[in-house]
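Re: magnesium ion structure - here you go.
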Amino acid sequence: MKKDNNSAGKVKNTERILDQIALRKQAPLGIYAVLVILYVAATVVVTSTAGMQGEVSMFGVSLTIYSFAGIFSALSNIFIMLIAVHFGKLGFFTAMTALVVQFPMILVGIFVKGNADSLPGLFTDFFTLIAVIIIYLNNMRIDKAQDKLRDQAVTDNLTGLPNRFACSELVNDLIRQGEKFTLVSIDINNFKSINDTMGRNAGNEVIIEIASRWKNAADQESSGTLDFVTRQSGDEFSLIIRNYSSEDDIIKTIKHYQLILEKKVTVEDCDLYLSACFGYAEYPTDADNSDSLFSSADAAVYEMKRMGNSNNILRFTPELLKNERSVEIERKIRAALVNDSLFFNLQPQYDISHNLRGFEALARMKDSDGTMISPGEFIPVAEKAGLIDKVDISVFRNAAKFFGELIQKTGADITLSVNVSVRHLMKNDFLDEIRYVINTCGVPADKLEIEITESIMIDSAEKALVCINELKNLGLKIAIDDFGTGYSSLSYLINFPADILKVDKSFIDKMNSSESSKQYVAAIISIGHIMNFDVISEGVEEPEQLDTLRSIGCDYIQGFIWGRPLAPEDAEDLVISSMRAE
Ligand code: C2E
Ligand code: MG
Ligand code: MG
């Protein structure tokens, strides 16, 4: 990076930090020390063996001791070159010093001790010196080109600020060193409207002005902390805050940058007043790695944008990630509805003698990487976002169409259950949609069953009842789903025109662990029968649970023990094979 000195002649903060990021690329100084030691050791061997008389025998061959001097002299030159190649200026001066010192030593050998055999050493030393100078000049040329490349790699073209790459390099360095710091994500408010109304050039001028003000502040350490400002993209910036002692210091620094931003910006004779959202997260308190630190700070900014809180500062909390995930899932549901890529599975339901009663249609959605998003995650999001009616009707339509064809093909006498959210049930066009599906799918109405979750229904019983009676008039069956998880009273059950109770899995799970839990399930089944409902137990997994349910008079079973949710083709195979078995 270009050394742009301030008035005090001191290298500015931003440049100094960028240089520190780059320093890591040089070979470690430990290797330098090892090479120097090896060089000194090889030189000592050369001087002590040069001129020595006598022979040694190796592998049956006799060698003069003097010949070892040649080998170690070559080695010492290799070490010197390695130092010159890998350690820049330091390596060059070390190599030059070593070689220059060698000259008089060789000359003393030749002229004082009369050792003429050292003459080739003089030439080797001379040529090594030339090679080191060439290496140095070449390294300087490469370094210059590399500096230029690095400048481009770490600098944002428009503003000259460090860019996204420099930011993540510094974050990774600080994490490696275990230093506490804070990452602030900054998003300028309404920047798009400046671009739209005044044009991109004016927008660029605004960004350049903000960047220059913030860079000065970081360079002069005017906030009282050690700061590093980077431009991420468009109107998004990041600020890394270091050397602070408390949360108050972080807020003080962010407010400092906020105040600088809020000062009037004049572009094309227009006075503009800017503001931004600042979301921050601290390493290691809020996140323990670079990825999660960035997404935590971003989550805080998005939360502020979502709340329309345009000029504020927010620290990351784990709650925010949940919101972010919800927003992402909502986007995926919307896309799946547009592409009609929501699909369904069919989980078989059996009577207690293991004869197929029918299937429950369960919504399924895939993530972009092909993994499944569980309905436990996306159904509540769809409910909150007001999309549940679209999800329900998409599953209902597709499942009913498939089921109509299946019944026509096989003549099977089976029921299709679909889940309907109470929020959907209350919508004015709900009954019209149901009528449309019944008229078009080819499934007799009495083979269609609507599952309504007990706990939600109680809250809105009055209005729900009107709808449910209408559904009954159309000939559909009604199931109370997840029975036992709400607060059903007997009087409520008596008035409720349901056909079937579905005992929630949580009761089936506990049923065999204590006698009282078993009695509780037995009581639910008895009450259901008294009210004239059939009872189906959900989530049956163990043979012991099946035995118990048989002994206490349960009518139907839905659970992994007899069948997991199946793709429609597999459900079709199951229907065909169960009809053959009859
Ligand atoms: P649910 O309606 O009570 O559906 C039964 C859930 O229990 C299904 O989970 C099923 O796969 C699971 N299950 C059944 N037997 C076993 C078992 O033996 N062991 C275990 N561990 N699980 C079992 P899934 O498919 O994840 O659905 C969860 C919930 O999402 C459903 O509970 C339902 O409330 C909701 N849902 C699914 N599809 C739709 C839909 O199209 N519309 C609406 N509104 N809600 C839906
Ligand atoms: Mg259900
Ligand atoms: Mg259920």
